[in-house]
């Protein structure tokens, strides 16, 4: 975790506007995949609009709806209650193989129950940390996975290609999930940005990262690899990475 200004995370990064266009396309064509809210979401949504206006990232005339924020912000958002850390709702156009509808109404620990050993090892630390986040300040972290395409939307219903067998490295992408946690008066605003990076680019520009990735895959517990859909990649990708690194050297 590291501290940063929330405006920097939520402001527009893609000056071409293509990212917002893709978000708007998904919200138009499949809103049932992108939007979910419970009755308790209303106050958190109003607080999100208020803080977005304070940052200068939402105009004063915006309709306080999740879809309207989702059309204006490049980051996906989740809204969590302050005490229970129940997911009250969100706008998630680019999920990493999870379903927002199924997550809404569950606690953060409840959502993480399917992640092998996560709650056992750091579940309580996550909750304690979120309770201490100062209001208006952002804390950032990254998560990672591997995919067969650079598609941003990996909703389970879309049945995207998986790394189910030996695959040319130019068809493999490191999927980085940048996360931000911002305290609201009544809860937490979580922002998510997805960055798919071609593995050949990682090898060329960040060889030490590629080497660490090979090591993490080799030592990844089987149940974690299965959860991250990397059980097959764990058997062949480390050797491919190290061979490519050797050739690059």
Approximate helicity band:
40-55%
Number of strands: 7
Could you name the ranges where pLDDT drops below 50 across 5 or more consecutive residues?
Answer: 112-116
Could you give the order of the helices and strands?
Answer: EHHHEHHEEHHHEEEHHHH
Tell me the overall shape: globular
Which structural class fits the helix and strand makeup? alpha+beta
Mean pLDDT: 91
Cα distance, first to last residue? Answer: 33 Å
- Tally of alpha and pi helices: 12
Taking the sheet with the most strands, its summary is:
7 strands, antiparallel
Strand content: 15-25%
- How many structural domains? 2
Rg from Cα: 19 Å
Secondary-structure topology with pairs:
Layout: E1 2-4, H1 6-10, H2 18-29, H3 31-34, E2 35-37, H4 41-54, H5 66-72, E3 76-81, E4 87-91, H6 100-103, H7 108-112, H8 118-132, E5 138-147, E6 173-184, E7 187-198, H9 199-205, H10 207-219, H11 222-227, H12 233-248
Antiparallel strand pairs: 1-5, 2-4, 3-4, 3-7, 5-6, 6-7
Helix pairs in contact: 2-5, 9-10, 10-12
């Amino acid at each position: 975790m590291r501290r940063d200004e929330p405006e920097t995370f939520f402001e527009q990064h893609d000056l071409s506007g293509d990212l917002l266009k893709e978000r708007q396309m998904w919200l138009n064509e499949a809103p049932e995949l992108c939007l979910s809210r419970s009755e308790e979401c209303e106050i958190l949504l109003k607080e999100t609009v208020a803080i977005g206006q304070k940052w200068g990232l939402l105009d004063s005339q915006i309709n306080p709806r999740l879809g309207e924020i989702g059309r204006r912000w490049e980051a996906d958002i989740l809204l969590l209650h302050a005490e229970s850390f129940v997911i009250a709702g969100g706008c998630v156009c680019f999920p990493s193989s999870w379903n927002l509808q199924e997550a809404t109404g569950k606690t953060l620990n409840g959502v993480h129950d399917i992640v092998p050993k996560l709650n056992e090892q750091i579940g309580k630390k996550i909750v304690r940390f979120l309770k201490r986040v100062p209001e208006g300040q952002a804390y950032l972290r990254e998560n990672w996975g591997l995919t067969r395409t650079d598609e941003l939307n990996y909703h389970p219903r879309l049945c995207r290609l998986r790394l189910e067998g030996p695959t040319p490295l130019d068809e493999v992408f490191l999927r980085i999930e940048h996360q931000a946690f911002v305290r609201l008066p009544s809860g937490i605003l979580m922002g998510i940005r997805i960055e798919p990076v071609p593995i050949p680019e990682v090898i060329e520009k960040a060889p030490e990262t590629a080497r660490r990735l090979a090591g993490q895959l080799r030592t990844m517990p089987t149940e974690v690899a299965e959860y991250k859909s990397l059980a097959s990649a764990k058997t062949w990708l480390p050797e491919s990475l190290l061979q490519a690194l050797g050739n690059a050297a």
